[in-house]
Amino acid sequence: MGKPKEGASHQNGQAHDKDIVRANGHDKGDDRRPFSIKCEWDIKQTQQFSDDGTNTYFWRAHTVTVLLIMLCVLVYVGAFEKTKENSEYNTKRGLVACIAVFLLFGDTQIRDGPFKRPHPALWRIILCLSVVYELVLIFLLFQTTHDARQLLKYLEEDLGKPLPEQSYGEDCRLYTPGHPKGSFHTFLEKCDVFIPAHFFGWWAKALILRDYWLLTVTSVLFEVLEYSLEHQLPNFSECWWDHWIMDVLICNGFGAYLGMKTCDYLGNKPYHWRGLWNIPTYSGKFKRVAAQFTPYSWTSYDWKATTSLTRWLAVCGIAAMFLLAELNLFYMKFILWIPPPHFIMQVRMALYLGMGAVALNETFRYMDDPTCKRFGQQAWVVAAIVSTEVLICVKFGWETISIPFPAHVTAFWILFFGSWTAWTVWQFWPSIIGGFRVNHDKGSDSAISHAEHRPKHE
């Protein structure tokens, strides 16, 4: 969330009680609140915020210390350790060492991201892990389908085997009296571990997107995509009540609602940070340690999707990338033969939550802050990862992706994109016409200028 602004007055590490708030768009002398504020870049925030500036030992980079420890480990491995005569073991160990050295370099040298809690080093590690993941995807992209599947055996022997087809939409009866498994066995069989996973997943997505409309649109559109693609992926076939009641209303809807309530709480609470050793009581120290795992400050997102054509296209692009990332998970599991509960998919989802939170913050700042001229580093990597995953799905699963859409699905999406295009043109017609006129005038001026400087011939 950016570097704090300079200029807040402090004395002995503490903020004056009578400091004038000169941040978040409040530069007026009559705006007097009892806390000094060293703000984020977001000029629309008005939360109470202060930081006494305490910089403890654990907040320093320790670049030389980390380098010396790393070199000591490498000296031990290179000069004293006896190498095993096992090529597979040594290859795996060498790759892990390469990744570890890269993570150490990134954690000490890469610039901080927008988040400061629980520690900037955590978010630097997430950025480095996302780069490693992108490099793995690039490597897979250059393999054959068979080799890509078999390479996963190096992670676990059970991988690289075809998965049984599974569909959740064969029997959609909620009540089956006299059934040996019970009258509500159809419903109970679908109440598995994925229900709490969906709920907590959408709670976390609400903390990332921070917008009711964007959450609702992506939730509904993903269920529509499941309807549209169930002829390609069997596990997209679900009962109607599983789609709209279990997923949209209960898991996604309730999770997103609680997530937005959490955003409201975090957006309204004051943030007053003091160094641990500046707090006199043990209870205060304990609360300070617990608060380390809460946000440093909070930025509420107002995407303003319909204020301009550029922002409308940008917000639609964010929703599209969000949906693509979700679809990639299911297609990659199906194409690379990875079972749904496998730890690879769980690690991927956890990594996406971490890097997605930073990427959305950087994207919002790039869109909303006129002083931000550079697309964020984490947002750049996330865009590359989603695009590479799509390419892997297309290359390795073309026989699946190329299965023709049913006629009614094709008709629906033609109607959808036609309506979207018509509404966009109707809503932003003045901007579109103005852009054409500007380009036309520039072209005319360029032609006139070229004609004026063209040499004359007798």
TrEMBL record:
It is a multi-pass membrane protein. GO terms for biological process: phosphatidylserine biosynthetic process. Its main location: endoplasmic reticulum. It is found in: Endoplasmic reticulum membrane. Residues 15-32 have a biased composition (Basic and acidic residues). The chain crosses the membrane at residues 57-80, 92-110, 122-142, 312-331, 343-360, 380-398, 410-429. GO terms for cellular component: endoplasmic reticulum membrane. Residues 1-32 are annotated as: Disordered. It comes from the Eukaryota. Belongs to the phosphatidyl serine synthase family. This is Phosphatidylserine synthase.
